[in-house]
Design a protein that fits this description.
7 domains, 5-stranded mixed beta sheet, 8-stranded antiparallel beta sheet, alpha+beta, lipid binding, Immunoglobulin-like, transport
């Protein structure tokens, strides 16, 4: 260590201000002192506070005592070794003689090898002398050399050890003891007299504007009429420096005080010219000429505190990156406050018991979160010194709030009405969503643009329950640390837990966050600066001042300015009372999505309190024109409506490049693939029924959007669905939710449990940007959770199938030449459009636009999108509109098409009532859609005429093919309806004694009775001519069985024969009519049948019945009836009465 320090000291050049002393032997000591004093180079008698100087002084005293010379201090003792150089040698201090580490003593053992070498050399030399036969005299010569070497070695060792120990002790004292700062206080005492008037004037100008804004309505004005800090400067009592491992950080502790009324250290001249600190706040009450000013006096201010100062250094100018300030403990302060009576007759309210302590506690409560340990106040010196606007936004956060799940219910009757408020670091509200009525799983689908000033802050999404009368109640807060956006600016489907008071989780919020920073201008080598052209950016508007607002000397206005962008207020300046030429210097920022169409309006108003504020003048200007005037340095704008008034404003435009396209509300991002879900079954579900068991079904959703649902399994806690569903997926961040509900025919369905699977668990390997390979099928058994408890499990399989790029023909097409036009060369040939008809599976996106030509006004219209007329598993349901004749929906959905050649898409415009009355309907075959997409540009969509009424609707389609093998059991043509007509029977066996029979036909599907004809008495060739429709859930395994019976009045019916046919032998959409021979009997049965592929299920619609309709249905005859659809569940009510799921 001593060698490192000595080497650094030897290399350091002498300071230019170091005094040069010359030796003059003929001059007495007194004369030498006078010469040095005249030259100004004599050192002060007071020892410096630096511990390094004390160390050097110890070394000098030791030498002078040894050599008997005068004690003259060394010249470079104060400058040769700085604190930084000492810290760089060793950061570990010692106390007394205790060693700090092994390297301290090892520095003195570096020459032990020389001692060993000396001993070995002595031995070899004496041995050589003896061998040569030399005498004792030669040995004494060798011993003399060894003795001299020993003396020099010991002397050097002691000298180095003494110096290093002195330096170690000084370094320890530097970091443990405080340093005196009298030299700094002496500088402050002289500089304060010059700087204090300018500082006080600056404080008055700043505070006056703040007070003008904060003036209560019952006061006319609030002014800071007098402010001075006095002639006595603040003091720095002591400074302590702390050791740390970071070379770029300096940490100190400063004790500062401001006691201007301490007179003991003032001279007579300073006492005569002394000015005490004084603050006079003038409060003006009343209005106009009847107003009067009341001075509030604050004087005799004193302050004392200890502050931790942490400075971060950097290599470039200004070499100080930031300064962190923090009070180690609450500072002490005192003052005299005279609210009435002024300086002469005022009464100090500190004498009122309890009031002074209350004011002190309020001051600590306000300053604590900003300045008291562990909180710090950071000054970004790099930004301040660079001249950059430190208050300007650095970028924009595009926040898309999707939905929330499982929120807390605070309502006694019904459910909460949640909405979200946005804050950053719990500051003022930045925005809020709309509220959703009566739900704990709201879907907002709303986008906000938030200006960001510091990414090292926290975004808060506080969920509230909307109340009509009382104050809205908080349901909890979800937080998001925006610092992660530096590494990943685009993040979608972020799941943030909602935390309530006490730290308990109760729900979650799903949102997307995209950070778009301000694009800095490009500086070229020649010094020129270019800025990108962007239609989006951040606009900062500065409202500086106005002039000539008053044309009469006796009239005084209280003007303020309101700035609006497209009618939305972005800035309201402070009100400056009784000012004809106000100076506001206020600024506001706003995100502009379209600069070319942005128009700004400025309204200068006169504040009149409770009365309507009249306009003093106004003007409007387009944003592009405003920026052009800034380039011309033209900031004054005449006010329209005022004969002479002018307003000075300026604009700063910061362009932003949005990283991706803004997706409007109600629309979807492009998909990445399709997830196949085989929903097998569930086990041990919760029973929520008082009579019977639950009737479970599964709802599959992503980001609050219901994508599909299973059939209802009646009266079963261990249901088996065995259904296959396909859903589109957009990002590996998405989460697929499985919610199991109990179906209720009339009331609200109750949740039995929920489970979820992250999409990334199903995805394959990533093969490119936003591209993933296929994922292997996974069998999952997920626990169902309800209110924090596990309520059974759900069994399913899941796999991921990516989209495939549509392939267009490689051969170019050369357009046919037209007369009068040039022939297009083959190299300029047009590319053939994509033939979508070659694909049979994929995702079909449907965008519903507006309608035209409808003649009937509907109170609450909405639209349903159906696949294959499946009204139970509705693809998408739009939001209901209010009182519209031609409603505009502007919503997008998508559906998986597994067999395009058989699929149909239907759009139904309905009225929101109990019957969901169909106002208009349009059904389109998917092959027609694909054929049209292959021929025409689908950018603007297509108009489709309604099938049942006047009018048309604008629809836009987009098809994304997916390569998936559809099993025959999953095929759409594997289920549907069989239209059957029982025409007649011939040649039947006579079962009665009369030689005839009373025949009728009973029809079964897989041993389940679905239909029975009427009885034709006393005939062997009955003619029935009856028709019915049978539901077929599995065409490959189902059979239609026709039993012909003889009816008996007393005994049971006697079978005359039967006929069985497998439904897979019925070709779709093909009528089959024949005479079929009866088995186990004689005769034939004439039938006419056709199979029509269509959605069939236990549920035919998702519409709930009203209580009156349900009761009427339960009292009715049950299955069959006027609907003529058998094998289904239309006729029953369900749970306990006839059975919604009854058979037969």
């Amino acid at each position: 260590m001593n060698e490192a320090i000595q080497g650094k000291a030897d290399k350091e050049p002498p300071q230019p201000n170091t005094p040069i002393h010359s030796f003059q032997p003929g001059v007495s000591p007194e004369e030498k002192v006078k010469i040095e004093e005249a030259a100004g180079t004599v050192l002060p008698n007071t020892p410096l506070s630096s511990d390094i100087n004390e160390t050097k002084s110890v070394a000098s005293d030791t030498k002078s005592e040894k050599f008997g010379g005068p004690n003259i201090p060394l010249e470079r003792s104060a400058t040769a070794y700085t604190t930084q150089s000492l810290q760089s040698t060793d950061s570990t201090a010692t106390v007394g003689w205790k060693e700090s580490n092994e390297s301290f003593l090892s520095s003195y053992s570096g020459q032990e090898w020389q001692n060993v070498a000396c001993l070995v050399a002595i031995t070899l030399v004496t041995y050589l002398l003896a061998k040569l036969g030399l005498g004792l005299a030669w040995c004494l010569v060798v011993l003399a050399f060894v003795a001299k070497y020993y003396i020099n070695s010991v002397k050097r060792f002691r000298r180095n050890a003494r110096d290093d120990i002195s330096r170690e002790l000084a370094l320890t004292k530097l970091f443990t003891d405080t340093e005196s700062t009298e030299w700094l206080n002496m500088f402050l005492n002289k500089f304060w007299l010059i700087y204090e008037p300018a500082l006080s004037a600056t404080i008055v100008s700043i505070a006056d504007g703040i007070l003008a804004v904060s003036t209560p309505a019952f006061l006319d004005s609030l002014r800071l009429s007098e402010f001075t800090l006095g002639t006595k400067a603040p003091r720095v009592e002591s400074v302590k420096t702390f050791s740390n491992e970071d070379d770029e950080t300096v940490e100190m502790e400063w004790e500062v005080s401001f006691t201007p009324n301490d007179l003991l250290d003032l001279t007579k001249s300073q006492l005569r010219n002394k000015i005490n600190p004084k603050i006079v706040l003038e409060v003006r009450v009343g209005k106009g000429f009847v107003g009067a000013g009341i001075p509030i006096l604050v004087e005799d201010i004193s302050f004392n505190g200890r502050m931790r100062v942490k400075m971060r250094l950097m290599s470039s100018f200004p070499h100080m990156q930031s300064v962190d300030l923090s009070f180690i403990e609450p500072p002490s302060f005192d003052y005299i406050l005279k609210p009435l009576g002024g300086e002469t007759f005022g009464f100090d309210i500190a004498h009122i018991p309890g009031l002074s302590a209350f004011i002190r506690e309020q001051v600590h409560a306000i300053l604590g979160p900003m300045l008291y340990n562990p909180n710090v106040f950071t000054l970004n010196m790099e930004q301040i010194m660079s001249g950059v606007d430190t208050e300007a936004a650095i970028g924009v956060l595009r926040l898309h709030i999707r939905n929330a799940r499982n929120l807390k219910n605070l309502e006694v009757l019904g459910l909460s009405d949640p909405y979200v408020r946005l804050h950053i670091n719990n500051r003022a509200e930045l925005g809020r969503t709309s509220y959703k009525q009566n739900t704990l799983n709201p879907v907002w689908d709303e986008t906000f643009f938030i200006l960001i000033h510091d990414l090292n802050e926290t975004l808060s999404l506080e969920v509230f329950d909307k109340e009509e009368i009382k104050k809205d109640r908080s349901l909890g807060t979800a937080t998001f640390n925006m610092a992660c956006l530096l590494d990943e600016p685009e993040q979608d489907h972020i799941i943030a837990k909602v935390i309530r008071e006490g730290g308990k989780e109760h729900g979650e919020v799903c949102f997307d966050a995209t950070y778009c920073p301000v694009v800095e201008p490009t500086v070229h080598e020649d010094g020129t600066i270019t800025q990108i052209e962007s239609n989006q950016g951040i606009l900062k508007v500065f409202v500086h001042q106005a002039k000539d607002l008053t044309h009469k000397a006796s009239t005084k206005h209280s003007p303020y300015c309101v700035v609006k962008l497209r009618g939305k207020t972005i800035l309201t300046t402070k009100v400056l009372k009784r000012k004809s030429s106000p100076v506001w210097e206020d600024a506001g920022e706003v995100f502009v999505n379209d600069k070319s169409t942005a128009v700004l309006s400025f309204d200068v108003l006169d504040s009149r309190g409770v009365a309507v504020d009249p306009a003093l003048g106004k003007f409007s200007i387009g944003l592009n024109e405003a920026l052009k005037r800034m380039e011309e340095q033209n900031q004054w704008f005449p006010l329209r409506g005022h004969y002479s008034g002018k307003l000075r404003v300026s604009f700063v435009w910061s362009p932003i490049e949005l990283s991706s396209e803004i997706i409007p509300a109600g629309h979807l991002a492009p998909p990445t693939g399709v997830v196949r879900l085989d929903l097998i079954g569930a086990r041990n579900l919760k029973n929520v029924e008082k009579i019977g068991k639950s009737d479970p079904y599964v709802v599959v959703s992503v980001s609050g959007r219901t994508l599909t649902r299973t059939e209802v399994i009646g009266n079963n806690l261990n249901p088996e669905w065995n259904e296959t569903h396909y859903i589109g997926i957009r990002s590996p961040r998405e989460v697929i939710y499985f919610d199991v509900y109990d179906f209720d025919k009339v009331g609200k369905d109750r949740r039995l449990g929920s489970a979820s699977v992250p999409a990334k668990q199903i995805f394959g390997e990533q093969i490119g940007k936003n591209r993933w390979g296929p994922g292997a099928p996974q069998e999952l058994r997920l626990g169902l959770h309800l209110e924090g408890k596990e309520r059974g499990e759900i069994h399913l399989k899941a796999s991921f199938n990516p989209l495939i790029e549509p392939v267009s023909p490689s051969d170019p097409v050369t357009p046919e030449p037209v007369e009068g036009s040039e022939v297009v060369a083959p190299t300029q040939a047009l590319k053939k459009p994509i033939d979508y008809t070659q694909y049979t599976t994929g995702l079909l996106s449907v965008t519903l636009g507006h309608t035209q030509g409808m003649k009937r006004q509907v109170e609450t219209p909405y639209a349903d999108v159906l696949l294959n007329n499946n009204e139970y598993n509705v693809v998408h349901r739009t939001k209901a509109k209010k009182r519209a004749t031609n409603p505009a929906f502007d919503e997008q959905c998508e559906v998986f098409i597994q067999e395009a050649q058989f699929a149909t898409i239907s759009v139904c415009v309905r009225e929101m009532n109990d019957e969901r009355t169909v106002i208009a309907r349009k059904t389109i075959e998917v092959p027609d859609i694909l054929e049209r997409l292959s021929k025409e540009d689908p950018t603007d969509g297509y108009w489709y005429e309604f099938d049942n009424t006047d009018g048309k609707i604008l629809l836009k389609f987009k098809f994304s093919p997916v390569e998936i093998s559809i099993d025959e059991s999953e095929s759409w043509i594997n289920k549907g309806l069989v239209n059957v007509k029982i025409i007649k029977a011939q040649g039947l066996r006579a079962a009665d004694s009369s030689g005839t029979s009373d025949p009728y036909v009973q029809v079964k599907v897989n041993d389940v009775k679905i239909y029975k004809t009427k009885v034709i008495k006393k005939t062997l060739s009955p003619v029935f001519n009856e028709e019915f429709t049978a539901q077929i859930h599995d065409r490959n395994t189902s059979s239609l069985i026709f039993h012909v019976y003889d009816w008996n009045q007393v005994q049971s019916s006697e079978q005359l024969g039967y006929f069985q046919i497998n439904t897979n032998k019925l070709e779709p959409f093909t009528w089959v009519q024949d005479n079929f021979e009866l088995s186990d009997g004689t005769g034939t049965l004439t039938l006419r049948m056709m199979f029509r592929p269509e959605h069939v299920g236990r549920m035919t619609t998702d519409r709930k019945q009203t209580f009156h309709a349900a009761t009427r249905s339960a009292i009715g005859k049950g299955v069959g009836g006027a609907t003529k659809v058998v094998g289904g569940t239309i006729g029953g009510i369900g749970k306990g009465v006839g059975g919604l799921f009854s058979k037969g």
